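Ops channel
N.P.: pipeline sanity check, posting one input/output pair.
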């Protein structure tokens, strides 16, 4: 999509050279495509509720990287917030599990 829209919406001069096109395709297909497939595989294996808790880790990683890489200060409320997030993830993961389906039931649902 970006390959088609970039020349039309770009603010400055554009040149779609081979490295630019290959880079856009690699970012779109390899990075985003792989993440998309991985996300749906996690949903299929863990279930939607458990898989959604993965997204709550992103801000914690951001704060940790900011502290380690950029030497930003971490305040008490960030630590408390991280505890709340981790506690929520633990609660969400520890809930009742859906009963396992037999392989034939999964095939019937797929049809």
């Amino acid at each position: 999509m970006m390959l088609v829209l970039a020349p039309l919406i770009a603010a400055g001069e554009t040149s779609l050279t081979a490295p630019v096109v290959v880079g856009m395709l690699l970012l779109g297909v390899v990075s985003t495509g792989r993440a998309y497939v991985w996300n749906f595989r996690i949903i299929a294996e863990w279930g939607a509720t458990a898989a959604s808790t993965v997204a709550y880790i992103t801000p914690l990683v951001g704060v940790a990287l900011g502290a380690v890489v950029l030497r930003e200060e971490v305040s008490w409320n960030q630590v408390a917030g991280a505890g709340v997030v981790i506690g929520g993830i633990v609660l969400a993961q520890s809930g009742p599990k859906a009963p396992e389906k037999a392989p034939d039931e999964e095939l019937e649902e797929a049809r």
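N.P.: looks fine end to end. The longest helix spans residues 18-46.
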